[in-house]
Design the sequence.
């Protein structure tokens, strides 16, 4: 095997050094304990920063936004995009998405170039109250809608074709209970994307310190047990595909790649 190019070695060193100061750490006995060491999600600076960034994407001033960071070209999650288009193909070119924890539309705008070629699209984001209020004020239109919970979404839009969970499960206090509630709505397909899991066969509660050049925040999170998550899904859903992508983070100096699943209701 060839040695890594020097530039890649340097990049990995920088990522590891940055992760030692920011990123993911800790092994807390409970979510409540991690919350005590966190500033939380409802800090106004997070919403303000994300809103300003997503509006620049919508207005054509930037190509792509992720966690409020702007990029001059779109970085696609090809497993997510192919999953969305595969679901649309099962529905004659129509696509209705319930994007749980979808911020102000990061995944929607990321994939809009492809979504625009479908017969019809309904993209419903379920978020915290302050994000819903901002989404409705600045971004909502006939295709992109914002809701406080899935019940309200279904009441207004009907049962969606697919439930999208993109990097949201680790940030829920009880992801298994939340997932059970979401899946009780008989949504035909589920896409879990861009999600990290523990390198050990157990759940681990940590805190994530966000670099200040993104926004000031320290938040509780959970590295889920991948096998446990799959077991919780298997009674009602079958796995169509599993995937990982090139994005990674570090925990205890170990590299963890983001993973995902495409599931179909049995």
Sequence:
């Amino acid at each position: 095997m060839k040695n890594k190019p020097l530039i890649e070695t340097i990049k990995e060193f920088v990522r590891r050094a940055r992760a030692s100061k920011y990123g993911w750490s800790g092994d807390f006995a409970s979510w409540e304990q991690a919350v005590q060491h966190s500033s939380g999600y409802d800090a106004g600076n997070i919403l303000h920063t994300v809103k300003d960034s997503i509006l620049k994407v919508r207005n054509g001033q930037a190509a792509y936004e992720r966690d409020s960071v702007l990029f001059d070209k779109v970085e696609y999650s090809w497993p997510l995009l192919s999953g969305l288009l595969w679901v649309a193909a099962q529905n004659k070119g129509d696509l209705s998405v319930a994007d749980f924890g979808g911020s102000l539309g990061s995944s929607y705008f990321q994939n809009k170039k492809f979504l625009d070629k479908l017969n019809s699209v309904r993209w419903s984001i379920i978020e915290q109250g302050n994000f819903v209020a901002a989404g409705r004020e600045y971004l909502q239109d006939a295709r992109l809608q914002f809701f406080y919970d899935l019940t309200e979404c279904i009441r207004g839009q009907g049962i969606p074709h697919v439930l999208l969970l993109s990097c949201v499960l680790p940030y829920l206090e009880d992801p298994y209970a939340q997932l059970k509630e979401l899946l009780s709505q008989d949504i035909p397909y589920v896409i879990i994307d861009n999600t990290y899991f523990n390198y050990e066969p157990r759940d681990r509660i940590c805190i994530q310190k966000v670099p200040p050049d993104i926004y000031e925040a320290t938040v509780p999170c959970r590295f889920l047990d991948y096998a446990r998550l799959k077991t919780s899904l298997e009674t009602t859903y079958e796995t169509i595909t599993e995937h990982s992508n090139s994005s990674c983070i570090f925990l205890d100096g170990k590299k963890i790649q983001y993973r995902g699943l495409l599931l179909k209701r049995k």
